């Protein structure tokens, strides 16, 4: 019985040490779509809330049919995330890895990409 209590206390200590502190991470995503025709909607999808893989978060045009941007705020303990962009609901980089995004130490990151170019 005493051994079980000590074992449970040890496991609890290990599990509490694994919890990462969460913080606000802001990422400004900028996407060049100048080589794409017939653009109706540009979006971003991703692994971590507020993004999801099921629906687009719509990006706003800086230069219509050319350059789009969005600021995404994550509350996370991770050091990065993964995303892909969409045009008219169609994913880029089909059958390729997601785009890795590393968060900056100062919590303000910028990520620029060209649609469908790794």
Radius of gyration: 19 Å
CATH topology: Immunoglobulin-like
Gross morphology = globular
Order of helices and strands: HEEEEEEEEE
- Major beta-sheet overview: 5 strands, antiparallel
Separation, N- and C-terminal Cα atoms: 57 Å
Number-wise, the strands total 9
Identify the CATH class.
Answer: Mainly Beta
Number of helices: 1
Unreliable stretches covering 5 or more consecutive residues:
none
Task: Give an account of the 3D structure.
The chain is mainly beta. The chain has one domain: Immunoglobulins (Immunoglobulin-like), CATH 2.60.40. Helices cover 14% and strands 44% of the residues. It has one helix and nine strands, in the order αβββββββββ. Strands 2, 3, 6, 7 and 8 form a five-stranded antiparallel sheet that branches. Strands 4-5-1-9 form a four-stranded mixed sheet, with no helix packed on it. Strand 4 and strand 5 form a beta hairpin. The longest helix is centred in the first third of the chain and has 16 residues. It is globular. The termini are far apart.
Output the keywords.
single chain; 118 residues; mainly beta; Immunoglobulin-like; five-stranded antiparallel beta sheet; four-stranded mixed beta sheet; 1 helix; 9 strands
Task: Give the helices and strands, then pairings.
Blueprint: H1 2-17, E1 23-32, E2 42-46, E3 57-58, E4 60-63, E5 67-76, E6 80-87, E7 90-91, E8 99-102, E9 108-114
Parallel strand pairs: 1-9
Antiparallel strand pairs: 1-5, 2-3, 2-6, 4-5, 6-7, 6-8
In short:
The protein is mainly β. It has one helix at residues 2-17, and strands spanning 23-32, 42-46, 57-58, 60-63, 67-76, 80-87, 90-91, 99-102, 108-114.
